[in-house]
Amino acid sequence: MFIVYGVDFAMSYRFFYGVILLLTCGCLLAAEVRVGITSVPLNLNPLYATDANSQNINRITHLSLIDFDEKMTAICDACKVFVEQIKSTGEHQVQFELKDSLKFWDGSKVTAQDIKFSYEYFVSENNKSNHARAFQNIERIELLSDFILNIKFKKFSIENLNNLTLLKILKKSNDGRVIGCGDYRIQEKTALKVVLKPVFNKKKPLLSFKVVKDETTLALKIVNKELHLSLGGISPRKYKWLKENTKDYEFLEIPGTNYKYISFNHKNEHLSKYNIRKAISKLIPRRELLKYKLHNTAVLSSGLFSPSFGKFFIESQKMRFNETEATSLLKEAGYEKIKGKWFFEKKQVSLNWRVSNNKATIEIVNLIKDSLTEFGFDIKVSVQEWGTFMKNVKKGNFDLIMGQWIGFTGPDMMKFIWHSDSVPPKGANRGHYINNEFDKILNFAASKLDEEERNTLYKKAQIMAENDFAYLGMWHPNITWIKRDCVKGVKIFPNGGFLGLRDLKLVCKGND
């Protein structure tokens, strides 16, 4: 018998042989689902998470009272039931009955008191949470029993319920750490990787989020089966190619909630005129761009809300490419065409189009620019890095921009981007769209307590903004996920949320 560094060699041999045997059969290795994402989660602390990937990972690691289902309807994620009461006085309260089976990571039960603590923790001045403003309309939280609570709001707002998605349920452990109650918790975090491990059901796989910023590299990792899931970030061209040339993958698509648009600066001497905005809308081949550039991975916009927002979706006029109509609109507004160029009061029409340094956006803008230039406009495209681009956008220092709104859940978004009270720094009406009639309808809708009456008014306001070309709506990109056949239980949501990853099963063989 040999003794090496104080270890019985025979026993050591048997031990390591056993370990090798266990590893070979996979008994010691937890199943791991490798998930490709294209941007780094910037801050996974639920108090400060604002980027999409951070918030979506938080949906897996932390529970909220409210979240959204596949139809963008509010559901109670942490409770059995919730009941809304809206009184004629404008008083708004919601009663929640928690699931009595919910537990924090330390095994203690989640109670109504923990919801109150979470609210106080988020709004504490000491913590300076990025989401504290979302809860400023909460007047108080009443504890009715261990598992029943009542949230009273200062006044009714359709966003009161929606904002509770940001209120993650937390508690402080005995050693002062803040812990959550989600199905998963963070096991590892590096610059380009986040690994989540299951807390309660050990049969669930690890979720390993790998950041792959370059879409060509991401496509290669899919082809080589290095990933089980890819959550967006693939251009329509490569997505189409992968769909036609890869095996053992499923391609999941659903109309998304994001809104791609062109914003006019309504203070510009030309774009302030309705005829000019409408003329430009007639010069953008949206259908051709959708078919040949996006390969039908989006749906054309007819308003701010995509078809996924059933109760807010509208079908307004369908803008079609029509140079003849655009010409008539310009001439009606007093413009004249001289040697193929459009002039107003002897001055050529020149517009500055600012673009962020996003390759896909630049390609689309240049195609639209070619169409407008061929018609006779002088369009100067200025490509800028993201920080510079956003500074100019917030200052209203542009004539045209192409942007995208993501993550919104209801009609309060219309007030944020188009109401005259929302001109920066109060909101995001960066194009200075001013329409008093639109403001009145929006304000009236917000005061209505009857949901059907309220939604009718919101639709009316949305149609008005659409017909007035507050923005020129382009399309709603589809949520496109790519998954291996051997990954089961994936649900895809129109907001691109990761809730549908909580109950995955991995049945791949070997190292697949």
In short:
This protein is 29% helix and 26% strand. By secondary structure, it is α+β, with helices and mostly antiparallel strands.
Q: Mind explaining what this structure looks like?
A:
- There is one protein chain.
- Helix content is 29%, strand content 26%.
- With 512 residues, it is α+β, with helices and mostly antiparallel strands.
- It has three domains: 117 residues, Dipeptide-binding Protein, Domain 1 (Dipeptide-binding Protein, domain 1); 87 residues, D-Maltodextrin-Binding Protein, domain 2 (3-Layer(aba) Sandwich), CATH 3.40.190; 219 residues, Roll (Dipeptide-binding Protein, domain 3).
- Strands 3, 12, 13, 14, 15, 16, 17, 18, 22, 23, 24 and 25 form a twelve-stranded mixed sheet that branches. Strands 6-7-9-8 form a four-stranded antiparallel sheet, with helices on one face. Strands 19-20-21 form a three-stranded antiparallel sheet, with no helix packed on it.
- Strand 12 and strand 13 form a beta hairpin.
- Helix 7 runs antiparallel to helix 9.
- The longest helix is centred in the first third of the chain and has 17 residues.
